[in-house]
């Protein structure tokens, strides 16, 4: 401390520390990380109802229209381009105020087709070890097939891993690239929650849900899923 510098009070030290922490948390939540909960079974078996996940909002390359600027961004920031197989959180195209989570299957400019549950990209079948089908073939005729379609520029074709129980690009179309919020990268906690819990939105239901988690924390938590990296 310099000789002419007045000593700071304890309250001022605490205040500055708290403000710094708040700013850091707000910055991280806005630009780096987002916490989300899986409400439905559309991503089973990769993600289960009640999985609490961390979303990396800093994962993908900025979509800059200036090539030199984009090159500088890629050199300075730990980001990469979107790839097939990435699990992303994005604004639901039909209701942008809602967040959806699905897996990227088709990329801009590709021709995607689904024939008898097999996905073809530019006429070639792709391997999808992560997907499951629980219903007999033919039962979901509107989901087992999809006509050859070219994915527009700056758009993605996304589907759930639980193919017979997922409302995705097969029904509501493409995901604009600008709607992507980030990549789901880790399950930090998992709780065995009712499958229809997301439909109970009344305040009493929310309070009941919190109380249920408090009283059953050790018996209904799926601890073996905690801190798993999502693939």
Can you walk me through this structure?
With 231 residues, the chain is of the alpha+beta class. It has a single domain, classed as Ribbon (Umud Fragment, subunit A). The chain contains 6 helices and 12 strands. Strands 1, 2, 3, 4, 9, 10, 11 and 12 form an 8-stranded antiparallel β-sheet that branches. The chain is globular and about 65 Å long. 22% of the residues are buried.
Question: What is the string of SSEs from the N terminus onward?
Answer: HEEHEEEEEHEEHEEHHE
Number of helices: 6
- Report the major sheet: 8 strands, antiparallel
Q: Which structural class do the helices and strands define?
A: alpha+beta
Shape: globular
What is the CA-atom radius of gyration, in angstroms? 22 Å
Supply the CATH superfamily name.
Answer: Umud Fragment, subunit A
Total discrete domains: 1
Report the uncertain regions: 1-6, 63-70
Percent in strands: 25-35%
The residue-averaged pLDDT reads 82
In the CATH hierarchy, the third-tier topology is known as: Umud Fragment, subunit A
Q: Class, according to the CATH hierarchy?
A: Mainly Beta
The end-to-end distance, rounded to whole angstroms, is 50 Å
**Fraction of helical residues:** 25-40%
How many beta-strand elements?
A: 12
What would you call the quaternary organization? single chain
Per CATH, the architecture is Ribbon
